[in-house]
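Re: your question from the hallway

Yes, I did run it. Sequences:
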Amino acid sequence: MGARLHMMNLFKIAARNLSRYKRRTVLTLSLIVVGVLFVTGFMAVTGSFKTMMVGQITDSFLGHLQIHRKGYVAAIETLPLTMNMKPRAVKTVETRLREIPDIEAYSMRIKFGGMFSNFLETTNIRLNGIDPEKETKTVPLLLPRVMKGQRSLSHGEILVPELLAKGMKVKVGDMVVVIATNKDGSVNGKQLKVGGILESATGPGGRDGYVHIEDAAEILRMEEMEISEIAVRVKDFSGLQEVYHRLEAELSGEQNKDGKPVFEVHTWEKLSPFYNIARMIDIMTFFIKLMLIAVVLISIMNVMIMAVYERVREIGTIAAIGTLPRRILSMFLIEGFLLGAVGAAVGSLLSIVLVYGINLAEFTYDFSRQTGIVLKTAVNLQDISVISGIVIAVAVVASLQPAFKASRMDPIQALGYV
Amino acid sequence: MQLIIGENVSKIYHTGEVPVNALKGVTFSIPKGAFLSIIGPSGSGKTTLLNLIGCLDKPSGGRLTVAGADVSSFGKTDAALFRGKHIGFIFQGFNLIPVLTAYENVEYPLFMVQDVPAAKRKTQVQDLLAAVGMIDQQHKMPDQISGGQKQRVAIARALVTHPELVLADEPTANLDYDTAMSILALMKKIREELNTTFVFSTHDARIIGEAETTYRMEDGMLETTGNGGAPAHDESF
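Structure:
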């Protein structure tokens, strides 16, 4: 109780000292508020942009994470059929996936390269054999990418990527032939009907075509269904890393006769080059935070140094009447703390208003081939807490040197100071 | 009973190339309950002696005992603790904390120096403000009261911790004659009631005669003594 009252008195004195030089305090606070506002606003906008991009990539074709046979990802450019997972291995993975309640859906894919012919011309194509029902649950934005035709995929149909359709001059309803070489080297072809034209998406796999998984198995003359990859969608994206670690831990126990792991698990971050862009955004945010730290550090240090210089006689007086150096130190530290805390609080409050305003204004932007995406910003409590924590900590650190100087002041010299 | 005993106390300042002997081995004693003035021209060593007695500075030589403690050996923190417990200060320029009211200025040493509980603080502060005639002005800020009133508040602040010794450096220098006399009368009254020892420096000829004992400083030496008022403690010198 006594300590609490003592602290209250210290805060009261600090607040009054700050209000003594109103203009200077307001200017410093404004600087901190603008800094907090800028950083929080930047994080809200870039965070929203990042979330949208990650959402687009993972929901359009990638999935949140993928499971392959060990070594497949390293060789993914050649889509090696020899590295597909056998039915027994797939069953093992499925059993594990069903045991994890945080997984919303998963989808098996057969990935292969082939030739695409419209009977007049032939070109290369990368294809995914999918179970449409499972695939749409795992990557819900796949079918909405269908620009022309029905948003579905049936047996005997193919979804053709738009650039290929344009180049080969094929339309919905046209018959085409897909020819592929299976893992034994024999060539097979199948006639398919163009069920839809698929809008391109950013990233690897964004320009692949899609056929039904059973058609893929038929083209590749598979005696039993061999799977290239299993895409997984988690219920809560923020819990992705936990699911990943659990899955990896469980699947790493599955080893071949040589004692080596059979499977590999990758999150979207390892599979998409966009992760590097996301990392760049994080690095930019980090540097913006550094700028905020510099602004707070310099402005508060400046104010506190001035405060000490202007109150030398006062410091001499309180030291003379027996105030211990550590208490003088705490008086000035509390002033710095108050400046930081008030600046952080007002800045955070205004940030929420700013974000609300941005959302209300419904700014739009274009991403890749998508236009008119509405900017939906958000600040979360964690970001606000981190920024406020940084500001307050830096404010206290900035006050340390002036506070220390005040606490070490010689009372005689201070009392004689004019 | 002697409250302050100085034996061959010296103070040398090394501020420039030539050392300055501010005090040249003075020996003195001041009994408890004294009302004593130290007079002398500027630069004679009055303030230096007060600073040493007040544990704001350390002697260069000799031995100085205040309230039974050898203050010559105190470190910074020990000196602050000792001052907070045993000594009250009154300054020429009043030195009230401008952001605190009269009440809060008097209360300040109780919570920042002595950790006195809030309930007890209130009684102590209000009693003292009443004693110095400032109870009606207790909620005013220092810039809302006159110089004499400020000094009354400063006296209350100096006394609020019940110190054995109050040191006042030119306490009336910034006051008109009437106010100066009333301040001295107040200090005397408190001395009578609480038996607090008052030591003040001055070169204000108007008030020299008000002290019961007077020490004269000249060029770092205690040259002569005189009796301004009642010769109550002249045997102590």
